[in-house]
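hiii, so i know i said id send this last week but things got crazy w the move. better late than never?? heres the sequnce for the chain we talked about at the cafe, plus the structure i predicted for it. fair warning i was half asleep when i ran it
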Amino acid sequence: MTPIAHQFADPAEAQAFLAAHPEVRSIEMLLFDTNGVPRGKLLHRDELIAAYTQGRPLPSSILALTVRGEDVVESGLVWEVADADCLTFPLPGSLTLQTWRDVPTGQMQVSLHPELGQPSVVADPRHVLGRVIDGLKADGMHPVMAVELEFYLLDQARDAQGRPQPARQTNGVRPDAPQVYGVYELEHLQPFFDDLYRACEAQGLPLRTAISEYAPGQLELTLEHRADALQAVDEGLRYKRVVKGVAARHGLQACFMAKPFADLAGSGLHMHVSLADAAGNNLFAAEDPEGTPLLRHAIGGMMATLHEVQAIFCPHANSYRRFQANSYAPLSKTWGVNNRTVSFRVPGGPARSRHVEHRICGADANPYLAAAAILAGMQRGIREQIDPGPAIVGNGYDLANERSSERVSTDWLSALRALEQSSWAQEALGADFLRVYLAIKWAEFGQFVSEVGEQDWRWYLTHA
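okay and structure toks below
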């Protein structure tokens, strides 16, 4: 059987799209890089069929970039390989319309070919996840996932102090209070929501409930879970692209930073996951709210491997500002039932819906890599039958204060060192991938800590 990450689209999809959309002159070809940033090219419609039949090259360095789009020479994917062309091919079902554009424009997602995409295929995040999923399927377990992203809707214009600010609503009001779960806040963003749902429908994205979250201008819209975990994560990344595009169309900015404001709630990427058998039966299903022994072993594996892969879940310096008590961001390696103060939450609901909500990632994480690290941890826990300990009842933040050894990492440097030293992460995610990933992250770390900015001037300019 062909590995799922290696399955590419039939050229008939391109032919049907061109016939159905004679008005489309350009197609955005995108690949999500190590940081989850969409990169690629804008193709003319006359180039589309060839992209399906012959592939389309992208430079090897496209998967060796910092979040700012700068080459990381230490990755080994720039000058050492002469920035070679690597062939990509479109993914099935990804050729759709970008409804927010002034001029009718298509969009298709590509991935590197397993052989013709050398030398950068080892760094393609989608392939990393595909390998982990294939490993679970070999053990008779089929991951079912949903991607849940929080974000802020901001003005493109800054405030008088040059800081980002929540977007004005249609009633002209700029929100300044959380109004969590407020329906008026949703009503006054109706034009944005209408276009967002329309764009997601055009792209086949299963967008569902909209919620006003715990800060002014903070929102969450849910995506339906998928029995194909790779499809669920593909859709999560495409959804993020749609949100940014529709927001820009409305003169707004969709911000997926983990912690854009020091005094307001951070934004998380919550990954919902269960495991099914080949017939689609939920292996976590149980009348017991704590699920089956398999579910608890999966949680035990995620707990046991958390420190080693937290630099995947929290990939930037800003990611760690989100970890604050009573903030809905977890502080310790804990699990519980229907409890939003823990890292691994088993939501309530009927037996057949039993699953785990992984709550550690910031919204800035790459969902491919986050999902790969989550599933690999679950597989280890199941294979080794790791006991997660008793479920937490009550306030998990109190436990974080009592048991400091169980706290999650709250600084980028410690997390990067733990990932670098993890032999398990090398085996689970691929040594070649981790070499590239860590080269990028160490380059970003060096740039970040060496930059002199506003906080330095406030603290030291006069009194140092």
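btw The longest helix spans residues 229-249. thought thatd interest u
miss u guys!!
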